Amino acid sequence: KQWYHRRVGKQWYQRRVRGSEVLLEGLGESVKGTWADHYFRGHMDKLKGRYHVALDSFKMCALRAAHLKQIKILGYYEIGLCHMIEWNWSSASDIFLDMRSEAKWSKLLYTYLSAVCMGASERPEGCRHLLKELPGLYKKTMNHELESYCIRRATTISNGSDLRYECHIAALEMLYVWRYFHLTESQANFIINNVNSRPQDLAPSTLAASYLFLGLSWLHLESICRAQQALLVADNIPQVNNRDNYISVATLCELTSLYLHTNQTERAKTTSERAKLHKDYDLEMQIFSRLNSLP
């Protein structure tokens, strides 16, 4: 049903699933019941969309790796991600909050994830408190581009008039760039209703993201015309800061895919070329694989 995930994206998932299967076959009985067994089985089930099964495996991974701190944190991260995919925002927030206390790296990222999930679950006071902490956690490390994005995004969230709405869109952004924006029918309808009743004073980046997710929701429901209309609205919202053009590039990627699906070849080519003109925007490394798959 979700045909809009390009064939390249599907092949990416298939390769990762097969990679986990081959690894488990190679390890054999020697790892059965260990943290590695549970981790790779969870990873495989997550890629296949069996999130409840994956969640149980990652919980067992964290339990079996209690004496291996970094492996336990890796298990916690996957647990939090599974909760996010299923929109269990409160549970996700609690997991990421625990992670930031134990992790040696990217405390800022885990604080940000905890904050947006907390805001999406309508816990405003805790969310605002965590967002205020972000600038003090910044360190110029290998993750500095992602962390800079988190700080900028947190400022937009804090300045918005509807914290829950802002945080929900921000959480969906993270799922999108991590390639785990997979909707159920009820989630698609929720986004449609939510965007249609959105606050009127949204920042351009949040407004464009809203229409991007509106378009993807209509695509999930197989309403191609409405999807194209929403994506074109997102494309026509100019961004004040060049760093926010990650939304523009993501929108152009989705429009290219839609045009290809509907045999609008010339429009697909033109849209693809426009996407590739953008440089030096937030989440560029995360969006690169989508951009690189365009014709």
List keywords for this structure.
295 residues, mainly alpha, 0% strand, 15 helices
Low-confidence stretches: 1-12
Q: How many strands in all?
A: 0
Structural class: mainly alpha
Dominant shape = globular
What profile does the largest beta sheet have? none
User: Level of helix content?
Assistant: over 70%
Count the helices. How many? Answer: 15
Helix-strand topology string? HHHHHHHHHHHHHHH
Distance N to C terminus? 22 Å
| Mean pLDDT over all positions | 88
Gist?
The protein is mainly alpha-helical and 295 residues long. The protein has 15 helices and no strands.
Your description of this structure?
The chain has 295 residues and is mainly alpha-helical. 74% of the residues lie in helices and 0% in strands. Helix 1 packs antiparallel against helix 2 and helix 11 packs antiparallel against helix 12. Mean pLDDT is 88; it is low at 1-12.
